[in-house]
Design brief:
Blueprint (H helix, E strand, L loop, with lengths): L27 H16 L4 E3 L9 E7 L5 E12 L8 E8 L2 E11 L1 E7 L5 E7 H14 L10 H16 L2
Antiparallel strand pairs: 1-2, 2-3, 3-6, 4-5, 6-7
């Protein structure tokens, strides 16, 4: 791993709540950012990381997590477009979800059990990632980040307040 771990941006920072800019240049700078993102994700013990989670407002995320069959999947998607299952193919998977930008608390979030992300790799070559299981959740979660949305934005007002209260209490206890 040649990247450098960067600090994780925490909820409340405006970069997490603003849609990210598309990547326009596939160059050494982008490759270095992706290496830093992997290093940051691994140091924080996460399974996915969006660029804005380290303060960079570009549409790129990395992942390293199992799919629905338990097979480890690792990659990067630049300028992703998320394609959820169509009507009649959609099965909701209500499962526990957390976020490196809201360390600690978790909450149940219903998401489709399958997702497909189209985009590009770090060189600009087209990629398509089909996800099931944790990978499907990760593709959706990270794309949400790039759209300026956190998983707590998908919760009821009461559940969102409970997660943020737990987060603040854990921060204040340190």
């Amino acid at each position: 791993m040649s990247g450098t771990a960067r600090p994780i941006t925490i909820v409340g920072n405006p970069v997490l709540h603003t849609p990210c800019r598309p990547v326009e240049r596939f160059d050494e700078e982008l490759a270095a950012l992706v290496e830093d993102m992997f290093a940051s994700m691994y140091e924080a013990e996460g399974v996915g990381l969006a660029a804005n989670q380290i303060g960079v407002d570009l549409r790129v995320f990395v992942y390293d997590c199992p799919d629905g069959d338990g097979v480890s999947q690792k990659g990067v998607v630049v300028n992703p477009t998320l394609v959820p299952p169509g009507p009649g193919e959609r099965n909701l998977d209500p499962d526990d979800e957390g976020c490196l930008s809201i360390p600690g608390p978790r909450a149940v979030v219903g998401r489709p059990d399958r997702a497909t992300a189209h985009g590009f790799d770090v060189t600009g070559a087209p990629v398509t990632v089909h996800g099931t299981g944790v990978l499907a959740r990760c593709l959706q979660h990270e794309t949400d980040h790039l759209d300026g949305m956190l998983y707590i934005d998908r919760l009821s007002k009461a559940a969102r307040k409970a997660v943020l209260r737990e987060f603040e209490e854990s921060r204040n206890a340190l």
